[in-house]
Amino acid sequence: xxxxxxxxxxxxxxxxxxxxxxxxxxxxxxxxxxxxxxxxxxxxxxxxxxxxxxxxxxxxxxxxxxxxxxxxxxxxxxxxxxxxxxxxxxxxxxxxxxxxxxxxxxxxxxxxxxxxxxxxxxxxxxxxxxxxxxxxxxxxxxxxxxxxxxxxxxxxxxxxxxxxxxxxxxxxxxxxxxxxxxxxxxxxxxxxxxxxxxxxxxxxxxxxxxxxxxxxxxxxxxxxxxxxxxxxxxxxxxxxxxxxxxxxxxxxxxxxxxxxxxxxxxxxxxxxxxxxxxxxxxxxxxxxxxxxxxxxxxxxxxxxxxxxxxxxxxxxxxxxxx
Length: 322
Ligand code: PEP
Ligand code: MG
Description:
- With 322 residues, the chain is of the alpha/beta class.
- The chain contains 15 helices and eight strands.
- The chain has an eight-stranded parallel beta barrel with strand order 1-2-3-4-5-6-7-8, surrounded by four helices.
- Helix 6 crosses helix 7, helix 12 packs across helix 14 and helix 14 packs antiparallel against helix 15.
- The relative contact order is 0.14.
- It binds phosphoenolpyruvate and magnesium ion (MG).
- Its main location: cytoplasm.
- It catalyses: L-histidyl-[protein] + phosphoenolpyruvate = N(pros)-phospho-L-histidyl-[protein] + pyruvate.
- Its EC number is 2.7.3.9.
């Protein structure tokens, strides 16, 4: 099957009736880039930078980070690369950072919250990112954004680092996009307000599902409540996509859901612009996309939004793709 799909490596990602989307891949390091290119992905939709920080006993320097980001964007050769700033805390620990022990780490001091409080750490990463933007199509994305103040504060640090680099005569991409992950319900709900200020959204369903249904993504006991196809999730996804399009912005998805066979018709129907998944799923997704009719998927999504349970949504979609 996968061998047969290899012929799709250089095919465009387009539905039967001509609607184009971007099929991108998620990576954790420059080592994953060959897999991205060999599987025909059109970009990197999520580069999780925490691994740069995790496999060691002290913070990575600006130079080390610059080298890593530059290597990835250069290998992608002009294709878009969305790099997520440090998303540590929650389930991911850093032994050399003295993080508080909390009762609910997934609701605690992590990601953008931690970066905004450790400004030196954050500025080092932002400076490395801005410098690397000179070498390809780099976009910066902040994780776990819950309020507009967080986005504004983080964006202001980027602008300050850009001003410093400009004064030093160091070149960078002046039109680098800065976006956010939508993985907290508050942000999905007021996507309209966010859309005026961010350049793009990428929906992180792995976290968005756990926060929307209040079901820990690591807990076996409540895994039955971890429901990607719950109508509430579809409603939030739709709200984010529509809000971005109303402002001429784009929306991607980089949670596991983006590569699922049942999700792809719904997401195409809701108007998702970019699907980012594990590289090994890209060709399968392209094969499925080539057989889909976007107008039928729109009708399917509209109907799915009226369903009352995940079970109903899944039954509806599975019947449609059978
Ligand atoms: C997500 O939450 O959907 C996501 C892509 O981020 P992570 O899985 O790294 O939390
Ligand atoms: Mg997440």
